[in-house]
Design goal:
Elements (H helix, E strand, L loop, with lengths): L5 H15 L5 E2 H9 L7 H13 L3 E3 L4 E4 L11 H13 L5 E5 L14 E7 L4 H10 L5 E3 L3 H6 L6 E7 L6 E4 L2 E4 L1 H10 L10 H13 L4 H10 L3 H11 L4 H4 L2
Parallel strand pairs: 5-7, 6-7
Antiparallel strand pairs: 1-3, 2-3, 4-5, 8-9
Length: 257
């Protein structure tokens, strides 16, 4: 379709929306077959450009390597509070090249049935800098800062604080994003972290965790390839997959490529 007019392209786009609206997802093969109706001699290289253009125009979103969804769900952009912004500014000013992410468990509230009384600010930095960042924050008058706490410390001290700050090592290649000059997490990272760190995130386990996953899926675009890639780095991929199958209402076809 290199010489197709804008009118023809718009027609095909609208036809695509009509064909797949209401579907949880569509496979790459279904998308290829759809375009074959208009381009019988469609080549794989040209098809890749069709996919690129649809993603670029926010018409489809990838949810795995072989599946897409019509882009009717927004990308999750966590709210950044003043405390998180202050911490981010401090770290960025002192450690200019450091990769890090800051977020508050407050952002989980929109997915929950039972609201927690207290929240934790999570500061994740590259492992080599975890101690320097911890001491720098304490020296900068950031209150209630804890360094990679163990279960006893979480139970005795952190669980009773209003806004404890926990400094953790950032897993390599963790999916993060920038929101208003603040490095923070993506929905994929949030879901895997809540599942993986059961002691630190004890308020979000059991039936509540399934509720969080289901609501996150209903409200936002989730890239399950990215989610499982990160879960693999945390050595939790199979456990997360079992949880999705057994405890959530997310259709298996979406993450079972």
């Amino acid at each position: 379709m290199p010489k197709a007019t804008t009118l023809v392209r718009d027609f095909i786009t609208e036809k695509l929306k009509q064909t797949f609206t209401g579907r949880e997802s569509l496979s790459r093969q279904e998308l290829f077959d759809f375009f074959l109706q208009f381009e019988p001699d469609l080549k794989e290289s040209t098809f890749r450009w069709r996919i690129y253009n649809l993603k670029d125009k926010n018409i489809i979103s990838p949810i795995s390597r072989q599946r897409f969804t019509l882009a009717h769900k927004p990308i999750f952009e966590p709210l950044i509070g003043e405390h998180e912004r202050k911490i981010s500014t401090l770290i960025r000013k002192r450690f200019k090249e450091l990769k890090f992410a800051v977020w508050s468990t407050r952002i989980v509230s929109e997915f929950m049935l039972h609201q927690p009384a207290r929240f934790i600010i999570i500061v994740e930095v590259e492992k080599v800098a975890i101690e320097p960042v911890f001491y720098y924050l304490k020296d900068s008058n950031i209150k209630d800062v804890f360094l990679d706490p163990e279960e006893k410390e979480i139970d005795r001290y952190i669980s009773g604080l209003e806004n404890a700050v926990v400094v953790l090592p950032l897993v390599s290649k963790a999916p993060i994003q920038g929101i208003k000059s603040t490095a923070t997490i993506t929905i994929e990272k949030l879901l895997v972290d809540l599942f993986s760190d059961k002691q630190l995130f004890s308020a979000y386990q059991g039936g509540e965790l399934a509720h969080i996953y289901d609501n996150a899926y209903r409200r936002y675009t989730i890239n399950f390839t990215k989610l499982f890639s990160y879960a693999t780095r945390r050595r939790k991929a199979q456990d997360v997959k079992n949880f999705l199958i057994q405890k959530t209402e997310i259709p298996q076809a979406i993450f079972n490529d």
